[in-house]
Amino acid sequence: MELECILQFFENKTILIIGATGFLAKVFMEKILRVQPNVKRIYLLLRASDNEFATQRFCHEVIGLDLFNILRKSLGANLESYVFERITPISGDICDVNLGIKDSILREEMWNEIDIVLNSAATTNFDERYDVALGINTFGALHVLSFAKKCTKLKVLLHVSTAYVCGEKDGYILESPIYMGDRLKGTSRLDINVEKELVEEYLDRLRVQGATNEEITSTMKDFGTKRAKLYGWPNTYVYTKALGEMLLGNYNKNLPLVIIRPTMITSTYKEPFSGWIEGARTVDGVIAAYGKGKLKCFLGHPKTIMDVIPADMVVNSMIMAMVAHANKSSQIIFHVGSSMRNPMKLSSLSDLISLYFTQNPWIDRNGKSIKVSKPIVFSNIAMFQAYMAIRYKLPLKVLWLANLVLFQYYREIYINLNRKVKVVMRLVDLYKPYVFFTGCFDDSNTEKLRVTIRENDVDMHLFNFDPKCIDWEDYFMNTHIPGLIKYSMKR
């Protein structure tokens, strides 16, 4: 598989990208436009009222980003014509049959033209509403598969999942499929259609009761978490992604299907430049809270491996997987992470975050530097709860009583401290399954792709996804945290 063949694979090809405004999709799109100018067409599915509004969303949320600066510099005034000769934004919705594309003529054109389908659409909120998560992460995957089956020229369908569909397993986690009805614990039978019916019944009951939108949202979030934990998954996100994989595996038949399971995705390592990121992702919520002085302690075992992987490495693995698995009537799964090849301990990450903000203090809205101290990391729940009770909850109770006696004299202090405690507790609740995670992701299939690259002398600069080359200290100190501050953190 020579470099020329990789680039030729995308030449004169038509690609459908679902989840086009997502982080990975944008990095993938930029890469294809930059390295293969002769791609025939890229359809982008965007939630919009019509194709005109879809185009407006594309201009505002995608092509105007700094991510495309390399293309912008090389093409100058020709950027817009270059892009729109190749990009076609279309209105649609992954939650609907035929992806919500109402124009029958357009649908037929797409089915006759599309070579590659990339589904990177997902709601990644750990505590998303159950109905929303099922619609996008689970049944959305099935809608994509159904649409792809109608594409007469289809070479490959690539679905982006997450490595954490494994739940809280420990040990060596294989690149193996999840079969219909699989559960991680419990004896209750898991039936995806029953889950859908339960959601509909729950929603109907809430509406009859006159529940507000806020009450429905809160109830459906709790319901999703409850159902996830019933079957052994820690949150609604990874649970509904696992259900999506079940549907893909069950109804795939003979389609060339690639499932990519990345671990925690971070900012770009090299391409198109170092440090680009969008939004606070995975560990970034912790980094942001600490840098802003809102996080003094956290929970997690120091020996836990924080399996992170830069976005451009994930995209390079996606490209190589598409090429390697094209036209093969089977399913294959790739773990894309670093725990096997270049593990980084939670304690090391904690030290790096502390070092960075000690040397580069966060500047608040008033222009003042925020001083940080080395965070306290508790290795078990009991120690953490005892600390929180003594350090924060007891003073909160005293302040609450004082406010009753002194006519809310300490009201602002109480509100501020209470907010900080809530931030910590929410982060703990969301990340607890991962800061105590003891699994290691087998990446045998992914390593075979890397071996193919090395054996065929492919340009590693263009298609590198080997985490062994990453110096984590240099990456976090000089790339990821500066990029996070520049592109994602609001002051």
Automatic annotation (TrEMBL):
Domain Fatty acyl-CoA reductase C-terminal: 393-490
Membrane-crossing segments per the record: none
InterPro entries: FAR, FAR_C, FAR_NAD-bd, NAD(P)-bd_dom_sf
EC identifiers of the protein: 1.2.1.84
Domain of life of the native organism: Eukaryota
Keyword line: Lipid biosynthesis, Lipid metabolism, NADP, Oxidoreductase
CDD domains per UniProt: FAR-N_SDR_e, FAR_C
GO MF entries: alcohol-forming long-chain fatty acyl-CoA reductase activity; alcohol-forming very long-chain fatty acyl-CoA reductase activity
Matching Pfam families: NAD_binding_4, Sterile
GO process annotations (BP): long-chain fatty-acyl-CoA metabolic process; suberin biosynthetic process
Domain Thioester reductase (TE): 18-318
Reaction equations catalysed: a long-chain fatty acyl-CoA + 2 NADPH + 2 H(+) = a long-chain primary fatty alcohol + 2 NADP(+) + CoA
Keyword flag Oxidoreductase: yes
Function of the protein: Catalyzes the reduction of fatty acyl-CoA to fatty alcohols.
Family membership noted in the UniProt record: Belongs to the fatty acyl-CoA reductase family.
Name of the protein in its database record: Fatty acyl-CoA reductase
